[in-house]
Amino acid sequence: MAPKIRNAAIITKIGSREAEADAVRVARLLNASKVKVYSILPLKIDGTASVAQEELKGVKIDLVFAIGGDGTTLRAFRTIPGNIPLFSINSGGHRGILSEANADAIDESVDAILAGKYFYDSRTRIHASVGKTVFPPALNDILVTRMSLTRTPLISIKLMGDEIKQRMDGIVISTPTGSTGHSFSIGGPVLHEGISCLILSPIASVNRMPQLVIPVEEITIQSTYESYLIVDGQETFRVEPDQPIRISHYADDATFLRLQKKGMRQLAKLGFSKLGF
Fold first, then answer.
1. What is the CATH number of the domain that holds 48?
2. CB 250, CB 137: distance < 8 Å
3. Residue 41 and residue 61 in contact, taking contact as beta carbons nearer than 8 Å
4. Domain that holds residue 156
5. Is 275 inside a domain boundary?
6. What's the pTM?
7. CA-CA to 4 of 20 to 30 Å: which in 117, 131, 138, 161?
8. Among 275, 272, 253, 261, which Cα is nearest to 80's?
9. What are the pLDDT digits (tens) for 142-170?
């Protein structure tokens, strides 16, 4: 029997009235079943306790509802501590590749969760560090790209005891979950999300370096020029020339709460819904 949900938090797409309205629906359903509900600021809902992101570590939470698009889900996984399960509802999002349900299925989804008819789905996360600075974890990908548009850096990639040096605009390090994101847009493969591996996708490599699929091991990247380090396409950091960027497996996997088992679930969200899987 799945664990009973006693405390839940809700995070929404910032500035979306549609997502906020759906959050109110979820909160009412949970409150009616005596579930303690927290709304993560700037979201405020009557009958819930408002908490700031930095306060979440001190709050007992069994489940987080992320209501919005994929961007909201990615932000939520950087907001919530540890491996607290997350249920993603697509409300106003474009494709909702990461979502488990659309807004029109809120009532039946919440009923199924409260009845314990769900399971957990763990996903690999990665994170980067430069010296003593540790950056937020990424569920999808980490992008290292040049800052200058007029100079192509020489990028060193150290992995599995080898070193590759290539002139290129940058490189995407993607998890299987992120294989439908930036990596896919530059020709990368779509991987089953449960596989344990990473995809390295060079951007505009002068010598046409191939994309690589490797085990989840530490990677060190250095660029001869200033770079941007971008986490899940949402947070950008500046890295000085020749500073080693270490990318490794994050200690806590991301945990999705799911209602239905699906094979290559991303394919339907990408528009390939009748492939015989």
1. 3.40.50.10330
2. yes
3. no
4. 126-249
5. no
6. 0.91
7. 138
8. 253
9. 999 999 989 999 999 999 999 999 999 99
